[in-house]
Each structure stands twice: as C-alpha cells, then as structure tokens.
Amino acid sequence: MENTVKITINGHEYVVPKGMILVDAAKLVGIDIPIFCYHPKMKPVGACRMCLVEIEKAPKLQTACTTPVADGMVVHTKSAKAVAGQNATLEFLLANHPLDCPVCDKGGECPLQDNAFGYGQGISRFAEMKRHYVKPIPLSDKILLDRERCIMCYRCVRFTREIAGDETLTVLERGSWSQIGVLEGRTFDSPFSGNTIEICPVGALTSSLYRFRARPWDIDVTTEPTVCSLCPVGCNLNLTVRNNEIKRVLSRENDAVDDGWLCDRGRFTYQFVASDERLTRPMIRRNGTLQPATWDEAITEIRDRIQETLVRRGSKAVAALASPRGTNEEIYLLQKLMRTVIGSNNIDYGLRRHPTYRPLGYDAATGSIAGLERANVILLADVDPIKEQPVLDLRLKKAAGKGAKLVVIGPEKIDLVSYAALWLKVDRAQVTRVVSALVASIVRDSLIKTEFVEARVAGASDVIEAAQAIDLAQVAAETGLTVDQIKQTAKLWAEAGNASALYRRGGAAVGLAEALTDLALLTGQIGRSGAGLYPLLRGGNEQGAIDVGAMPDRLPGQRSVDDASARERLASIWGKPVPSEPGIGGADYWNAVEQGQLAALYIVNHDPVAPGASAPKQAQAALAKLDFLIVQDIFLTETAKLAHVVLPGAAWSEKDGTYTNLERRVQRIKVATMLRGEARPDWQIIRDVGLALGGDFDYQASTDVLAEIAVVAPIYRGITSARLGEVGLQWPRVHATGSGTESLFADDGTRLTCPPLPVGIESTVRG
C-alpha cells in the first residue's frame, strides 16, 4: 500500500503508516519506547534523549521521537547499545533529581519512577551533593514549581507556545543551570495553565489546590468519568476523590471534543462541591423566616401552594426557570411538569431573549468540533471563544496551525486576531451588515456555487436580488472597511474547499444568523466536515435545554408549539393535552410579574438577584411581588433567601445523567461524590413535585427519563446510556450504523431554504 511502509523492530516485521514518528509506530504495534519530552500533540524536539534506539546503518543512536519511519528500517530498542544509552540518560537525569518520592505529588504515577525501574541500572556514578533550590516557586496562584525536580523536557514551555499560543513560560539561565520560569514582564495567567501540571512527566509542576492532599494509593475514585458543566464544549474529565471530596480534576481522553486539554476554569473549579455552606435540608418560610423542614413538608407545601395558585389565578400564572447547567433529564422533567401538570408553556432555561430564526430548521451547530480542523477558512463573527468556550479556542488555533485562514469580524481584538488572515474591525451593530455585504460581493463577482444552489437550495433568487441592491462602497464607508477587504473576504470564503462560520447564538447582532446562512448556502459551505454553521452557546448544557423543550415556544425535539401533530404525539405519550399557546419567556418574567401575569415561579440553579446578574434590582423587586417562589439550588443564594420553599439539590459531581454540548454530542455524566446531608438529585426532586401534583412521573432512575426523551424527541431517537459509551454521540443517531451524525445535511438531498437577506441592519442590537 502506498501509505504504509515495512519496518523491523527487535527482529519482527511490521507494516506501519508512512511518515509516522518511530516512537508512535512502535506503540502502535505494542512496543514500548521510554519517553519524557515527547508528547503526541506537540512537535518533537528530542530534548531528553530517553527514547534512544539503535537503527541499523545509522552511525549512532537515534531519538525515536524525532525519527520518521522509512521502508526497510531495522530498529533495535533492546540492544546493548540502546540499553546503554537509555541507562546513561536516566543516570544523568537523576544526578540532581531529589529522591523525595514519598512527599512528591507525582509519587506512584510518575514516568520518571517507571522509567527508572524499567530502564535504569539502579546505581549511579554521580556521588556529588544534589542541588537544592528554594521551593516551591509560585508561577501563579494555582501553579507551583519545584525547580530541582525539573528534567528540562520543555513540555510546559512548548505547550504555552504551540498549543495555548501565549508563550508565557521560557527557559532561564544556560547550560546545567537552566530552569523553567516566567518571561520577564509577564505573568503566568494563561486560561490553560493547568495543562502544564498534567503533562509534566515529573513532580516539578504541581497544583496548589492538590499539593500534599492525596496520593494515588489512598484515594477512593481515580478515574470516574464525567463531563465539565461550566461551558458548552463539554470537556471530558476524570475526578480524583478522597473522603467524598474532589481533590483534583484531570483530563479524560476524548479528542473529538477537547483534544485532551482543559481550561483552568474547568480544572480548578471544584472546591465548592465540599463547601460547608452547601444546602443540606429543605427550608420553608414560616413567620417571615426560612426554617429547616422535612422533604415531605416541603413537597406538601409546594403542592398546596401551586394548587391554590392554579385555582385562583390559572395555569398561565405559573412559570419555571430551568438551569442551563442541569442535566437533560432534570430539564426535561421540569418542562414536562409545566406542560402536563401545570398546563402552561411558561418554561425557559435563561433570562435572555432567544433568536427567532433557526438556521435551516435546527437550533444547533451543523458540524463537529473536530471538523473545524478540516476547514480551510473559519469566519468568526462577533465571538470570543477564549472567554466563553475556552477549549474551542485551542481547536481554532490548531486549525490555524494546519493552514486554516481565520477571519475575525467584530470590534474587539480577541486573541485569535493574532492568528487571523483578516480582521474586519467594525462595531458590533455593523457585523450583520458586513456579512450581508459579503453575500453581495459573492453575487456580484459570480462566486455562487450554481450547481449546489440549483440542486439543494430554495429561495436563492430572492437573496440574490436583495444582494444586488447593496452598495458595497456605501457599506465600506459606513463601517470603516474598504471595498477590497469585503471582496477579498468574500473570495476567500467562496473559494475555500471547506469554510465554517462561528457566531454567538442570541448575540447582539440582529439578523446575523440569517446572513451567515445565506452566505453558506450560496457557496455550498454546508453538510461537510469543516463546512457549516456554528451558533456558539454559553451555558454548559444550553444545547440540551433547547433540545428537550425548555423554551416557551418549543417542544422536546426543537418542534414548535404551533405544530399540531407534535402536540398530538406528545399528548398520546404523556397522557395529557399539550398547551398550544406559546408561553412567557424568561426575558419577560420580571415584566410579567410587575404586570400581574405571573404569581408563582419555580427557579432551578439561577441567582438573578446576585450583584453580578444582568438586572438584580429588577429581579429582586419582581420576586418580592410573587405569591409563591420555589428555589432549588446547592447554596442559599440571594435569590433563595427570598423564596417561600428552598430545595437542596445536587452539585455536578453528584449527578447522573447526560449533557449535550455545542456540537450536538450527548455525553454521560456519572456520580463521583455522594450527596451532602439530605440533598437530592435534581431530577428526583422534580419527579417528586410532579408526583405530588398528580402527574405521571413514575421514574426510578435517570436512565428512565433519557429513555422517554428518546421517544418524545425525534432528534434523540435511539440514544441510550449504553449507546453513548465513554465518548458520546452527536444527534441524530444514524440507525443503520449506530453512529452519531457529524455533519447535518450531508448529501442527504434535503432542500435547504435561504432566509431573507438582512439589508439595512446597521444600528440595531439586541438588548
């Protein structure tokens, strides 16, 4: 085969991929070559010399991490010369390395220990006193450095340069006095700094939160897989747990999602789970103050007060607010509670206004995160991933490193501008107008993919007509761009083999989703890996909330409440009619209370009264006017202090269920720590409220809820906990193969419709 070569390792012949690095080829066929500096996601440097092997016809030993395989290559990893080279490398590395394994955080899981046992001689000719440094040196408030343990593999320095792109760490001094440090005038404040701890092959870099707090042999849970809930990327985690406390968070390999990396927010935000301030018992307001109560008392109080509200004010006076960090199962049950028991569509997962347009019928990304690496052009319209989807930022940098041309449109110099081929710096209110101008440029310069449009696109003629009326010179003059910049960007997009557009779902730029959809359809940039539309979300399970129906105008499966057949189908499953009138959205809750429309509210894991919230004073005034307020949370928040009933829920590590990330990937989370006090899983609390109010909520496990979601939401059909496995599935599941769908509209013959092209939108922004 053209893409393979034959090599011989230790007397056995193997066929391996052409061009593969020798250390990877050996691993592929089950042969271990010791390494320190090599990391599969970074460029090889051959710095540590641990991977020395003997290659026939080579004049000296070679580093396996820098040597690509070649046809006919004969390699010896255990010959006398190779073993002597490996022994010598370890002898040099241990010359000044402290033998403090019992107190080192890496003890018991240290590659240096493993290689010393596996490839070292056990003796050393170096009898001099070892060097000692002041320890530890704080590189940041989270990262500590023990300089004498460092073996100068440069992994941490290379990570900051090659992966994170911030070049914060460097090598100080020279020769045998070389040491890792922070560049002069800089601070180690990278949002990805924690990755350096995990890739450090010795105990040189340690976490200030984990240091001296546990060892591999005395922890309860070492590899309990779960998913981060702090942003919509859905990075995969392993939790180290001791005495029911999370001691550290490690990455879990799921390259399709996170490429093996974590952001510092996801890695270090865990101590709250074991906080002494956690809610541990239900509370009921009695005589003006919140007092501890039993679960039976709390559920009974909710039942009686809700029934009283329904009789006195009707179903439209009750609303609920689900958490975008909750599981699919608990969010689904809350919307079902509202629709089947309360009889209202007053359900939302946030307090922002939702966009009215859903690109091509789905409120979701059409492609995958990993697919962005196969894009030739990536357009970033008014987004800042490093703040809102941090690990996605690393994926975009990786794509740029592979040759993708990034185009940034927006007012802020985000970190990706330094990777971009073009930065169209315009006010946020002008972003939509610029994208519409790109469509106009494509039309005028005959860059439309005519064959694709004729075969797959409806409504293109109206868009083309609207585009022809756009004056590029006027747009350029009013936005501060040049006509050449607009035309260059349009040409770059249209002629790309694969182009993807990322934008903020529900962002300030009105009409942006419509303009980007037209841009994609007229140029055929849809339905392929690397070609598609990506509305970027903010909440950890915001996509799941959208999918399972936590919106006032959408049912499970993203179907409209106006869809009579969808309502009938749900009614046949739920055994209750489904309200046909769209409910009040979260963005209108406070006004609705002020106007007397809402009398009771059920809030799950939101704190709109907190000082940092968008409108805390308005929220506080509205909540104070409610007849009945239920708050379900893990802390007694400012909002919970106003409640009539407070219900103690579960923290993310105490939950079992599923999340759906920004690429439509449904992933499992598992219980890693036990509940605090009398707290209960959120789905169980909502189930118990539903049962008390007479609903059909007889679920014994969260998997029962997921099974129902798979029935009522067509996009989740066929998805079960067992089928999700460790890496999850992108909906919809392909029943013929059992796999997930990476790209929506991939050669399936679906007729796609262009929305009206936004024209003249130049100053309107969402509030």
Question: What does this molecule look like?
Answer:
With 767 residues, this protein is an alpha/beta fold. It has four domains: 4-93, Ubiquitin-like (UB roll), CATH 3.10.20.740; 128-274, 2-Layer Sandwich (Alpha-Beta Plaits), CATH 3.30.70.20; 283-354 and 541-650 and 676-699, 3-Layer(aba) Sandwich (Rossmann fold); 368-526, Dimethylsulfoxide Reductase, domain 2 (3-Layer(aba) Sandwich), CATH 3.40.228.10. It is 29% helix and 17% strand. The chain contains 24 helices and 32 strands. The strands form nine sheets. A seven-stranded mixed β-sheet has the order 15-14-28-27-26-16-17. It has a five-stranded mixed β-sheet with strand order 2-1-5-3-4, with helices on both faces. Strand 12 and strand 13 form a beta hairpin. The longest helix has 19 residues, at 295-313. The relative contact order is 0.11.
Brief digest:
The chain is built from 24 helices and 32 strands.
Notable characteristics:
5-stranded mixed β-sheet, alpha/beta, 767 residues, 32 strands, 4 domains
* Through-space gap between termini: 59 Å
- Overall tally of structural domains: 4
Tell how many strands the DSSP assignment holds. Answer: 32
In spatial order, strands of the major sheet run 15-14-28-27-26-16-17
Instruction: Using the alpha-carbon principal axes, give the shape.
Output: globular
Helix content range = 25-40%
CATH classification class of the largest domain? Alpha Beta
Structural class: alpha/beta
> Hey, roughly how much beta strand do the residues contain?
15-25%
- DSSP summary: helix tally: 24
Average pLDDT, to the nearest integer?
Answer: 94
How can the largest sheet be summarized?
A: 7 strands, mixed
Q: Please state the CA-atom Rg, rounded to the nearest Å.
A: 29 Å
Any idea of the CATH topology of the largest domain?
Rossmann fold
